[in-house]
Design a protein that fits this description.
The protein is an alpha+beta fold and 231 residues long. The chain has 2 domains: 43 residues, no CATH class; 157 residues, Beta-Lactamase (2-Layer Sandwich), CATH 3.30.450. 55% of the residues lie in helices and 14% in strands. The radius of gyration is 32 Å and the shape is elongated. It starts with a helix and ends with a helix.
Length: 231
């Protein structure tokens, strides 16, 4: 619609109101929908338009629009603060895992690896436990339970996030708290063992979690552990 025709329509709309003609609300709605820039062309009307407001009585359209904009700004600020908080948490976790990998490369025994995992993950990330369960040796998981466990939890992946059954928790973590867990298979051929990390928070580890940092940890352990275990 051209500017000239828009002004003509606006005049036609205003004149009936001045004459108190019988103009239906539907007609007004239809006109405004067809002319969304009506109040841009007639800004002087904005301060005269009154809309009912549940708490404040009658307020101008400008006031309502301003309040809506302020609400959107508050929502955007809240989301921005959430993103900043998440970014800071992710940076902290990244630094912890980077330091952990460096420390693991300096370890000379499985006992040192176990101690380092516990020290870093429990002290710096407030996790409840971290264990390495070997598939071979005197303290290995029984072969039948190995097969059943890996077929159930690692069928198409080398990682598992979430909750375990009571029997599975007992098998991997003993009496340690592990309401939710992160598990990874160790060994280039998935035959070295399992690293289990437990949290006392049932919602801490969830299936949709990213595996990037744990993949890096897995690679470090796959390099250091075989010689220590005697593979």
């Amino acid at each position: 619609m051209s500017e000239l025709s828009g002004q003509a329509s606006a005049t036609q709309l205003i004149e009936p109101f001045n004459d108190k003609a019988d103009l239906s609300p539907d007609a007004v709605v239809a006109f405004l929908l067809e002319n969304p820039d009506f109040f841009v062309q007639h800004p002087e009307l904005l301060e005269k338009v009154k809309l009912p407001h549940e708490q404040k009585g009658s307020v101008s359209l400008v006031e309502i629009q301003s309040e809506q904009l302020r609400k959107k700004v508050r929502q955007l600020n809240f989301k921005l603060n959430q993103l900043v908080t998440i970014a800071k948490q992710n940076e902290k976790i990244y630094r912890v895992y980077t330091d952990l990998n460096v420390q693991l490369l300096r370890c000379e025994s499985v006992a040192e690896v176990q101690f380092t995992l516990e020290d870093v993950l429990q002290e710096r990330l407030n996790l409840s436990c971290a264990v390495i369960k070997s598939f071979k040796g005197p303290h290995a998981i029984p072969e039948l339970q190995q097969r059943l466990f890996t077929e159930k939890r690692f069928k198409n992946t080398e990682f598992f996030f979430g909750r375990l059954s009571q029997h599975e928790r007992q098998l991997l973590f003993g009496e340690s708290e592990a309401e939710s867990v992160a598990l990874m298979l160790l060994g280039d051929k998935r035959d070295l063992g399992i690293l289990g990390i437990g949290s006392s928070d049932a919602s801490h580890f969830t299936p949709e979690m990213d595996t990037l940092l744990l993949q890096q940890l897995q690679q470090v352990l796959n390099i250091t552990l075989p010689d220590m275990i005697g593979y």
